[in-house]
Amino acid sequence: MNVNLEEMERKLSPEADTQAAARKEDHIDLALESVTKTSEKDPRFYYEPILKGYDAGMDLAVPFMGKRLSYPIWVSSMTGGTQKAKSINTNLAKLCGKYGLGMGLGSCRQLLYDDQRLSEFDIREYLGDQPLMINLGIAQVEQLIYSKETERIEKLISKLRADGLIIHINPLQEWVQPEGDRILMSPIATIASLVDMATYPIIVKEVGQGFGPESLKALFQLPLAAIDLAGYGGTNFSKLELTRSGDLRKQSMAAVLGLGHDCDEMISYINELMDREEPLACKQVIISGGIRGFLDGYYYMKKCKLPSFYAQASGFLKYALDPVQLEQYMDIQIEGLRMANTYLSLKD
Ligand SMILES: Cc1cc2nc3c(=O)[nH]c(=O)nc-3n(C[C@H](O)[C@H](O)[C@H](O)COP(=O)(O)O)c2cc1C
After folding, report:
1. Please, which of 103, 152, 194, 304 could form a disulfide with 75 given CB 3.0 to 4.6 Å?
2. How far is the CA of 321 from the CAs of 92, 313, 317, 332, in angstroms?
3. Mutation test of ligand 1: which of 238, 314, 317, 319 has the most ligand atoms closer than 8 Å to its C-beta?
4. pTM here?
5. How many CB atoms neighbour CB 47 within 10 A?
6. Which of 249, 258, 257, 266 shows the shortest CA–CA distance to 310?
7. Of 209, 231, 227, the residue nearest 219 (C-alpha)
8. Higher per-residue confidence, 274 vs 19
9. In CATH, which of 3.20.20.70, 3.30.70.360, 3.40.30.10, 3.40.50.720 is domain 67-343?
Protein backbone atom coordinates (compact mmCIF):
# COMPACT_ATOMS: atom_id res chain seq x y z
CA MET A 1 0.00 0.00 0.00
CA ASN A 2 1.38 3.41 -0.98
CA VAL A 3 0.76 5.69 2.03
CA ASN A 4 2.30 9.12 2.65
CA LEU A 5 3.80 8.50 6.14
CA GLU A 6 4.44 12.16 6.93
CA GLU A 7 0.81 12.99 6.24
CA MET A 8 -0.29 10.05 8.42
CA GLU A 9 1.92 11.26 11.34
CA ARG A 10 0.51 14.78 10.99
CA LYS A 11 -3.02 13.48 11.20
CA LEU A 12 -2.22 11.50 14.36
CA SER A 13 -0.74 14.46 16.27
CA PRO A 14 -2.89 15.98 19.08
CA GLU A 15 -2.84 19.43 17.33
CA ALA A 16 -4.28 17.96 14.16
CA ASP A 17 -7.88 19.01 14.69
CA THR A 18 -7.99 22.30 16.60
CA GLN A 19 -11.00 23.43 14.56
CA ALA A 20 -13.28 20.57 15.63
CA ALA A 21 -15.62 22.55 17.92
CA ALA A 22 -16.08 25.44 15.47
CA ARG A 23 -16.74 22.97 12.68
CA LYS A 24 -19.41 21.16 14.66
CA GLU A 25 -21.15 24.49 15.35
CA ASP A 26 -21.08 25.30 11.62
CA HIS A 27 -22.53 21.91 10.80
CA ILE A 28 -25.51 22.52 13.05
CA ASP A 29 -26.06 26.03 11.69
CA LEU A 30 -25.67 25.16 8.01
CA ALA A 31 -27.17 21.68 7.70
CA LEU A 32 -30.66 22.81 6.73
CA GLU A 33 -29.30 25.08 3.97
CA SER A 34 -27.22 22.26 2.55
CA VAL A 35 -29.84 20.03 1.03
CA THR A 36 -29.25 18.89 -2.57
CA LYS A 37 -31.74 17.94 -5.29
CA THR A 38 -31.35 14.82 -7.42
CA SER A 39 -31.65 17.05 -10.50
CA GLU A 40 -28.30 18.64 -9.52
CA LYS A 41 -26.44 15.32 -9.64
CA ASP A 42 -23.62 15.17 -12.20
CA PRO A 43 -24.64 12.44 -14.67
CA ARG A 44 -21.16 11.99 -16.15
CA PHE A 45 -19.37 10.10 -13.40
CA TYR A 46 -19.40 7.01 -11.23
CA TYR A 47 -18.29 8.01 -7.75
CA GLU A 48 -16.24 5.20 -6.16
CA PRO A 49 -15.29 6.26 -2.64
CA ILE A 50 -13.72 3.02 -1.37
CA LEU A 51 -11.32 1.84 -4.03
CA LYS A 52 -8.25 4.09 -3.69
CA GLY A 53 -6.34 6.03 -1.02
CA TYR A 54 -5.70 9.72 -1.72
CA ASP A 55 -2.22 10.39 -3.06
CA ALA A 56 -1.48 14.02 -2.13
CA GLY A 57 1.65 13.99 -4.32
CA MET A 58 -0.05 12.44 -7.37
CA ASP A 59 1.95 13.15 -10.52
CA LEU A 60 -0.29 14.86 -13.10
CA ALA A 61 2.44 15.97 -15.52
CA VAL A 62 2.09 15.73 -19.30
CA PRO A 63 4.78 16.08 -21.97
CA PHE A 64 4.20 18.76 -24.60
CA MET A 65 6.40 20.04 -27.44
CA GLY A 66 9.50 18.44 -25.92
CA LYS A 67 8.79 20.21 -22.61
CA ARG A 68 6.74 19.28 -19.59
CA LEU A 69 3.52 20.66 -18.15
CA SER A 70 3.49 19.82 -14.44
CA TYR A 71 -0.32 19.78 -14.62
CA PRO A 72 -2.55 19.16 -17.64
CA ILE A 73 -3.62 22.80 -17.76
CA TRP A 74 -3.00 25.55 -20.31
CA VAL A 75 -3.79 29.26 -20.15
CA SER A 76 -5.67 30.11 -23.35
CA SER A 77 -4.71 33.05 -25.53
CA MET A 78 -6.23 36.25 -24.33
CA THR A 79 -4.88 39.67 -24.32
CA GLY A 80 -2.16 42.18 -25.10
CA GLY A 81 -1.98 45.68 -26.47
CA THR A 82 -3.08 47.65 -23.42
CA GLN A 83 -1.48 48.50 -20.08
CA LYS A 84 -4.08 46.36 -18.25
CA ALA A 85 -3.13 43.51 -20.58
CA LYS A 86 0.48 43.80 -19.46
CA SER A 87 -0.56 43.16 -15.82
CA ILE A 88 -2.82 40.30 -16.87
CA ASN A 89 -0.13 38.68 -19.02
CA THR A 90 2.51 39.14 -16.32
CA ASN A 91 0.32 37.57 -13.63
CA LEU A 92 -0.63 34.67 -15.87
CA ALA A 93 2.99 34.12 -16.90
CA LYS A 94 4.13 34.10 -13.27
CA LEU A 95 1.43 31.55 -12.51
CA CYS A 96 2.64 29.38 -15.39
CA GLY A 97 6.24 29.70 -14.26
CA LYS A 98 5.44 28.80 -10.66
CA TYR A 99 3.09 25.90 -11.40
CA GLY A 100 4.79 24.58 -14.53
CA LEU A 101 1.97 25.37 -16.99
CA GLY A 102 2.03 26.74 -20.53
CA MET A 103 0.27 29.67 -22.15
CA GLY A 104 -0.67 31.33 -25.39
CA LEU A 105 -0.41 35.08 -25.87
CA GLY A 106 -3.36 37.03 -27.18
CA SER A 107 -3.30 38.12 -30.80
CA CYS A 108 0.12 39.58 -31.63
CA ARG A 109 -1.09 41.19 -34.86
CA GLN A 110 -0.01 44.68 -33.78
CA LEU A 111 3.57 43.46 -33.25
CA LEU A 112 4.08 42.21 -36.79
CA TYR A 113 5.07 45.60 -38.17
CA ASP A 114 5.74 47.66 -35.05
CA ASP A 115 7.50 47.08 -31.70
CA GLN A 116 5.68 49.85 -29.83
CA ARG A 117 3.58 47.46 -27.74
CA LEU A 118 6.11 44.65 -27.52
CA SER A 119 6.68 45.06 -23.78
CA GLU A 120 3.03 44.20 -23.02
CA PHE A 121 3.60 40.77 -24.52
CA ASP A 122 7.17 40.27 -23.37
CA ILE A 123 6.70 37.83 -20.50
CA ARG A 124 9.25 35.06 -21.12
CA GLU A 125 11.27 36.02 -18.03
CA TYR A 126 8.32 35.09 -15.76
CA LEU A 127 7.64 31.75 -17.38
CA GLY A 128 11.08 30.18 -17.08
CA ASP A 129 11.27 27.46 -19.71
CA GLN A 130 7.53 26.68 -19.78
CA PRO A 131 5.84 26.64 -23.21
CA LEU A 132 4.87 30.07 -24.56
CA MET A 133 3.21 30.62 -27.94
CA ILE A 134 2.61 33.77 -29.94
CA ASN A 135 -0.83 34.14 -31.54
CA LEU A 136 -1.97 35.34 -34.96
CA GLY A 137 -5.27 35.18 -36.81
CA ILE A 138 -5.65 33.17 -39.99
CA ALA A 139 -6.28 36.43 -41.89
CA GLN A 140 -2.79 37.70 -40.96
CA VAL A 141 -1.17 34.39 -41.84
CA GLU A 142 -2.96 34.48 -45.21
CA GLN A 143 -1.65 38.00 -45.86
CA LEU A 144 1.91 37.15 -44.80
CA ILE A 145 1.96 34.16 -47.13
CA TYR A 146 0.55 36.27 -49.95
CA SER A 147 3.13 39.01 -49.44
CA LYS A 148 5.94 36.44 -48.93
CA GLU A 149 6.70 37.86 -45.49
CA THR A 150 6.28 34.83 -43.27
CA GLU A 151 9.75 35.49 -41.83
CA ARG A 152 7.99 38.16 -39.73
CA ILE A 153 6.45 35.31 -37.73
CA GLU A 154 9.84 33.76 -37.00
CA LYS A 155 11.23 37.15 -36.00
CA LEU A 156 8.37 37.74 -33.58
CA ILE A 157 8.74 34.28 -32.02
CA SER A 158 12.40 35.01 -31.52
CA LYS A 159 11.82 38.55 -30.13
CA LEU A 160 9.38 37.23 -27.55
CA ARG A 161 11.52 34.13 -26.89
CA ALA A 162 8.43 32.03 -27.58
CA ASP A 163 8.30 28.38 -28.62
CA GLY A 164 5.99 28.66 -31.60
CA LEU A 165 2.77 30.01 -33.09
CA ILE A 166 -0.92 29.61 -32.36
CA ILE A 167 -3.13 30.39 -35.35
CA HIS A 168 -6.67 31.32 -34.43
CA ILE A 169 -9.38 30.68 -36.99
CA ASN A 170 -12.40 32.84 -36.44
CA PRO A 171 -14.35 33.35 -39.68
CA LEU A 172 -17.72 33.61 -37.94
CA GLN A 173 -16.45 36.25 -35.53
CA GLU A 174 -14.98 38.21 -38.46
CA TRP A 175 -18.24 37.82 -40.37
CA VAL A 176 -20.32 39.17 -37.48
CA GLN A 177 -17.97 42.11 -36.90
CA PRO A 178 -18.96 45.09 -39.09
CA GLU A 179 -15.30 45.93 -39.82
CA GLY A 180 -14.26 42.24 -39.81
CA ASP A 181 -11.85 40.59 -42.28
CA ARG A 182 -13.13 38.19 -44.91
CA ILE A 183 -10.87 35.16 -45.08
CA LEU A 184 -10.31 34.70 -48.78
CA MET A 185 -8.29 31.48 -49.06
CA SER A 186 -9.43 28.24 -47.49
CA PRO A 187 -7.84 28.31 -44.01
CA ILE A 188 -6.73 24.70 -44.26
CA ALA A 189 -4.72 25.52 -47.42
CA THR A 190 -3.15 28.52 -45.66
CA ILE A 191 -2.23 26.45 -42.62
CA ALA A 192 -0.83 23.63 -44.76
CA SER A 193 1.41 26.12 -46.65
CA LEU A 194 2.72 27.60 -43.42
CA VAL A 195 3.29 24.17 -41.85
CA ASP A 196 5.34 23.23 -44.94
CA MET A 197 7.72 26.15 -44.50
CA ALA A 198 7.69 26.62 -40.71
CA THR A 199 10.61 25.62 -38.53
CA TYR A 200 8.60 26.16 -35.32
CA PRO A 201 5.64 24.27 -33.75
CA ILE A 202 2.14 25.39 -34.72
CA ILE A 203 -1.11 25.05 -32.76
CA VAL A 204 -4.44 25.77 -34.44
CA LYS A 205 -7.46 26.95 -32.48
CA GLU A 206 -10.94 28.39 -32.89
CA VAL A 207 -12.15 31.12 -30.54
CA GLY A 208 -15.38 29.70 -29.10
CA GLN A 209 -17.25 28.07 -31.99
CA GLY A 210 -15.24 24.85 -32.27
CA PHE A 211 -14.74 22.77 -35.45
CA GLY A 212 -17.06 20.48 -37.39
CA PRO A 213 -16.03 16.86 -38.18
CA GLU A 214 -14.61 17.55 -41.65
CA SER A 215 -12.51 20.46 -40.39
CA LEU A 216 -11.15 18.30 -37.58
CA LYS A 217 -10.39 15.49 -40.00
CA ALA A 218 -8.44 17.86 -42.27
CA LEU A 219 -6.58 19.47 -39.36
CA PHE A 220 -5.52 16.14 -37.85
CA GLN A 221 -3.83 15.28 -41.15
CA LEU A 222 -1.33 18.10 -40.61
CA PRO A 223 1.71 17.70 -38.32
CA LEU A 224 0.53 20.35 -35.88
CA ALA A 225 1.84 20.49 -32.30
CA ALA A 226 -1.79 20.46 -31.13
CA ILE A 227 -5.35 21.30 -32.11
CA ASP A 228 -7.09 23.47 -29.55
CA LEU A 229 -10.84 22.91 -29.76
CA ALA A 230 -11.96 26.30 -28.34
CA GLY A 231 -15.48 24.96 -28.52
CA TYR A 232 -18.96 26.31 -28.08
CA GLY A 233 -20.28 26.84 -24.57
CA GLY A 234 -17.90 29.39 -23.11
CA THR A 235 -16.73 32.83 -24.13
CA ASN A 236 -18.11 33.47 -27.61
CA PHE A 237 -16.56 36.23 -29.66
CA SER A 238 -19.33 36.26 -32.24
CA LYS A 239 -21.68 37.10 -29.37
CA LEU A 240 -19.27 39.70 -28.07
CA GLU A 241 -19.03 41.34 -31.50
CA LEU A 242 -22.80 41.34 -31.88
CA THR A 243 -23.18 42.98 -28.46
CA ARG A 244 -21.08 45.85 -29.85
CA SER A 245 -23.47 46.29 -32.81
CA GLY A 246 -26.62 48.37 -33.19
CA ASP A 247 -30.07 46.93 -32.50
CA LEU A 248 -30.98 46.07 -36.09
CA ARG A 249 -27.78 44.05 -36.67
CA LYS A 250 -28.10 42.46 -33.24
CA GLN A 251 -31.64 41.24 -33.84
CA SER A 252 -31.25 40.12 -37.43
CA MET A 253 -27.98 38.28 -36.83
CA ALA A 254 -28.78 36.72 -33.45
CA ALA A 255 -29.55 33.33 -34.98
CA VAL A 256 -25.87 32.71 -35.84
CA LEU A 257 -25.03 32.67 -32.16
CA GLY A 258 -26.27 29.09 -31.95
CA LEU A 259 -23.71 27.87 -34.52
CA GLY A 260 -20.76 25.74 -33.49
CA HIS A 261 -19.63 22.55 -31.76
CA ASP A 262 -19.00 21.91 -28.08
CA CYS A 263 -16.13 19.86 -26.67
CA ASP A 264 -18.34 16.83 -26.11
CA GLU A 265 -19.30 16.65 -29.79
CA MET A 266 -15.79 17.34 -31.02
CA ILE A 267 -14.22 14.68 -28.83
CA SER A 268 -16.69 12.16 -30.27
CA TYR A 269 -15.54 13.19 -33.78
CA ILE A 270 -11.88 12.83 -32.75
CA ASN A 271 -12.52 9.41 -31.22
CA GLU A 272 -14.21 8.33 -34.46
CA LEU A 273 -11.09 9.42 -36.37
CA MET A 274 -8.98 7.34 -33.97
CA ASP A 275 -11.25 4.33 -34.43
CA ARG A 276 -10.59 4.39 -38.18
CA GLU A 277 -7.02 3.40 -37.36
CA GLU A 278 -5.55 5.69 -39.99
CA PRO A 279 -2.54 7.39 -38.39
CA LEU A 280 -3.16 11.03 -37.50
CA ALA A 281 -0.33 13.49 -38.08
CA CYS A 282 -1.39 15.68 -35.13
CA LYS A 283 -1.35 13.74 -31.88
CA GLN A 284 -2.29 16.23 -29.20
CA VAL A 285 -5.59 17.89 -28.28
CA ILE A 286 -6.09 20.98 -26.14
CA ILE A 287 -9.60 20.78 -24.76
CA SER A 288 -11.04 24.23 -24.31
CA GLY A 289 -14.12 26.37 -24.74
CA GLY A 290 -16.61 26.38 -21.92
CA ILE A 291 -14.41 24.40 -19.54
CA ARG A 292 -15.67 25.47 -16.12
CA GLY A 293 -12.87 23.79 -14.15
CA PHE A 294 -11.25 20.53 -13.12
CA LEU A 295 -14.37 18.33 -13.39
CA ASP A 296 -15.01 19.32 -17.02
CA GLY A 297 -11.29 19.05 -17.74
CA TYR A 298 -11.03 15.59 -16.16
CA TYR A 299 -14.17 14.37 -17.91
CA TYR A 300 -13.06 15.40 -21.39
CA MET A 301 -9.44 14.27 -20.96
CA LYS A 302 -10.69 10.82 -19.94
CA LYS A 303 -13.15 10.77 -22.81
CA CYS A 304 -10.62 11.80 -25.47
CA LYS A 305 -8.66 8.91 -26.99
CA LEU A 306 -5.78 11.16 -28.03
CA PRO A 307 -3.40 12.61 -25.43
CA SER A 308 -4.87 15.85 -24.18
CA PHE A 309 -4.88 18.57 -21.57
CA TYR A 310 -7.40 21.30 -20.89
CA ALA A 311 -7.32 25.05 -21.22
CA GLN A 312 -9.30 28.00 -19.97
CA ALA A 313 -9.47 31.66 -20.92
CA SER A 314 -12.32 33.28 -18.95
CA GLY A 315 -11.72 30.87 -16.03
CA PHE A 316 -8.30 32.49 -15.51
CA LEU A 317 -9.35 35.97 -16.60
CA LYS A 318 -11.70 36.21 -13.61
CA TYR A 319 -8.71 36.26 -11.25
CA ALA A 320 -5.99 37.52 -13.56
CA LEU A 321 -5.53 40.88 -11.84
CA ASP A 322 -5.11 39.26 -8.42
CA PRO A 323 -2.09 36.95 -8.15
CA VAL A 324 -3.21 35.56 -4.77
CA GLN A 325 -6.60 34.50 -6.09
CA LEU A 326 -5.00 33.12 -9.24
CA GLU A 327 -2.86 30.79 -7.15
CA GLN A 328 -5.82 29.81 -4.98
CA TYR A 329 -7.76 28.99 -8.12
CA MET A 330 -4.86 26.87 -9.44
CA ASP A 331 -4.49 25.02 -6.13
CA ILE A 332 -8.18 24.11 -6.35
CA GLN A 333 -7.72 22.87 -9.93
CA ILE A 334 -4.83 20.64 -8.88
CA GLU A 335 -6.54 19.23 -5.80
CA GLY A 336 -9.70 18.79 -7.88
CA LEU A 337 -7.84 16.73 -10.47
CA ARG A 338 -6.35 14.57 -7.71
CA MET A 339 -9.80 14.06 -6.19
CA ALA A 340 -11.25 13.15 -9.59
CA ASN A 341 -8.44 10.70 -10.36
CA THR A 342 -9.00 9.03 -7.00
CA TYR A 343 -12.78 8.73 -6.84
CA LEU A 344 -14.33 9.28 -10.28
CA SER A 345 -14.66 7.22 -13.42
CA LEU A 346 -16.68 7.94 -16.55
CA LYS A 347 -20.12 6.42 -17.09
CA ASP A 348 -19.86 6.22 -20.89
C1 LIG B 1 -10.50 38.60 -23.09
C2 LIG B 1 -10.27 37.51 -24.09
C3 LIG B 1 -9.45 37.75 -25.17
C4 LIG B 1 -9.20 36.76 -26.12
N5 LIG B 1 -8.32 36.99 -27.14
C6 LIG B 1 -7.97 35.98 -27.97
C7 LIG B 1 -6.94 36.16 -28.92
O8 LIG B 1 -6.36 37.23 -29.05
N9 LIG B 1 -6.60 35.11 -29.70
C10 LIG B 1 -7.22 33.89 -29.58
O11 LIG B 1 -6.83 32.95 -30.25
N12 LIG B 1 -8.22 33.71 -28.71
C13 LIG B 1 -8.60 34.71 -27.90
N14 LIG B 1 -9.59 34.50 -26.96
C15 LIG B 1 -10.35 33.24 -26.98
C16 LIG B 1 -9.84 32.26 -25.95
O17 LIG B 1 -8.49 31.90 -26.20
C18 LIG B 1 -10.71 30.99 -25.90
O19 LIG B 1 -10.56 30.25 -27.07
C20 LIG B 1 -12.18 31.29 -25.67
O21 LIG B 1 -12.32 32.36 -24.78
C22 LIG B 1 -12.92 30.09 -25.10
O23 LIG B 1 -12.41 29.72 -23.86
P24 LIG B 1 -13.22 29.99 -22.49
O25 LIG B 1 -14.59 29.44 -22.68
O26 LIG B 1 -12.40 29.25 -21.45
O27 LIG B 1 -13.21 31.47 -22.25
C28 LIG B 1 -9.84 35.49 -26.00
C29 LIG B 1 -10.69 35.25 -24.91
C30 LIG B 1 -10.90 36.24 -23.96
C31 LIG B 1 -11.82 35.92 -22.80
Report:
1. 103
2. 9, 14, 8, 18
3. 314
4. 0.93
5. 9
6. 266
7. 227
8. 274
9. 3.20.20.70
